[in-house]
Amino acid sequence: MHTTLIASMGSKPSLQVPMKWPKIPWTDRLLLFMFSILLDLSCRFNGIISCCLRPFFDPRTAANPNPVSGVCTSDITINSSSNLYVRVFVPSDTNIKGRLMPVIVYFHGGWFSFFSASSCTYDTICRMISREACAVVVSVNYSLAPKNKFPVAYDDGIDVLRFLDSDQIRSIDILSNLELDFGSCFLAGDSSGGNIAHHVARRWALSTQNWKKVQLAGIILIQPLFGGEDRTESEIRLDGAPVISMKVGDWAWKAFLPHGADRNHEAANVFDAIKLGIEEAFPPALVVVGGFDPLQDWHLRYYEVLKVKGKQVKLVEYPYAIHAFYVFPEYNDTGKLMEEIKGFVQANRPI
Ligand SMILES: *[C@@H]1O[C@H](CO)[C@@H](O)[C@H](O)[C@H]1NC(C)=O
Ligand SMILES: *[C@@H]1O[C@H](CO)[C@@H](O)[C@H](O)[C@H]1NC(C)=O
Ligand SMILES: *[C@@H]1O[C@H](CO)[C@@H](O)[C@H](O)[C@H]1NC(C)=O
Q1: Which of 56, 94, 116, 296 is the least crowded, having the fewest Cβ atoms under 10 Å away?
Q2: Does residue 1's CB lie within 6 angstroms of at least one atom of ligand 3?
């Protein structure tokens, strides 16, 4: 059921697509149905309607300094003029005192246009990652499209890394008793958040001399949102799969990319830029692929181009996984994913 496939160097990775669609509980079907209505309305009204409907589709939760599921949280303002904040997740396990903790900067998904660091969905996911990987997770409330187009979300990501690189970090209560290992920071993200993690990693790698403390030790891309004008085989074959469709994807890229740009813009179609040359410092990558995700061909291409450039990259496949499977607690691939993230973080820390 939950095979992990790591394609060996040189061989073309391929997914063994299961014959049947995975069983999705009715509660998830309802959620997916409502979410597809929201997306559809957003496509029609260019994002405006989503503000009124958001509380129904995207409930939020406050930060909580008391442990919930073994993790404490706190919201921290990074830049008051751009209204950028992060939610920080710290394991409450008392054994961590004095231990050097890895830091994972997380970018949530949602087509660049939906959700936030305080969305219940992402609060839960980051809490899980923090507990399982025993890491401090910094979840970025980046600016959303269509109001904020490319490259504002990437700029926000860099602003957060700069904040972590500065001495301001010492003034943060929730972190004051901890030893943070900025020498092995990880960037992680799902869907559009995976796209942001990739671009922020490249910007960091282009300017390594400008960073005092922050070193990237790895990036974790969970079903990252990449694209291009040409449709891939999997986009056509799996169009209409849960959560994601070509129609919504096309809208989301229009909402995010500069006016007049098409999906071959470097933000979406990252492959030519990687082929031209990827920075020496670009960190090892973990790429997570789902067998029912229409985006899977982009993921396999990403894996291949990095491999060809001699980068360390690991591909993990969940044959039954739909796009955004980790949002649904019933999807037991989520447990596997957490183990995978934990293993990747441990394997890529120099100590
Ligand atoms: C804070 O945001 C403002 C407005 O977006 C920007 O001009 C400035 O460079 C940011 N400051 C830092 C330290 O990131
Ligand atoms: C986080 O981002 C969302 C969406 O852009 C915004 O509505 C919310 O006000 C932000 N939260 C904070 C605390 O800045
Ligand atoms: C995981 O899900 C599959 C299919 O939904 C189910 O058959 C299996 O028993 C589940 N495994 C666990 C450990 O819950």
Answers
A1: 94
A2: yes
- pTM here? 0.91
Q: Quick one: which of 282, 283, 315, 284 has its CA closest to 301?
A: 315
Give the C-alpha distances (Å, rounded to integers) separating 198 from 58, 78, 273: 25, 21, 12
pLDDT tens for each residue of 45-96: 665 555 666 777 788 999 999 999 999 999 999 999 999 999 999 999 877 7
Atom of ligand 3 nearest to the CA of 22: 5
What the block records as the tokens of 21 is 């669609």
- Give which of 319, 316, 322, 323 is closest to 339, Cα–Cα: 316
Q: How far apart are CA 303 and CA 281, in angstroms?
A: 17
Which ligand 1 atom is the nearest neighbour of the CA of 155?
14
- Ligand 1 site, residue 94, Cβ cutoff 6 A: no
Mean per-residue pLDDT, 323-327:
90
Would residue 191 show up in a list of annotated catalytic residues for this protein?
A: yes
For residue 197, name the pLDDT band (cuts at 50, 70, 90): very high
Does the annotation count 119 as an active-site position?
no
Task: Determine the pLDDT at residue 50.
Answer: 56
Q: Quick check: is 293 catalytic?
A: yes
Which token pair is 174? 């929730």
Q: What is the pLDDT of residue 32?
A: 72
- Alpha helices, DSSP H, located in 150-268: 152-165, 192-206, 233-237, 246-256
Q: Which residue(s) pair with 222 in the sheet?
A: 190, 288
What CA–CA distance (Å, rounded) separates 85 from 68? 21
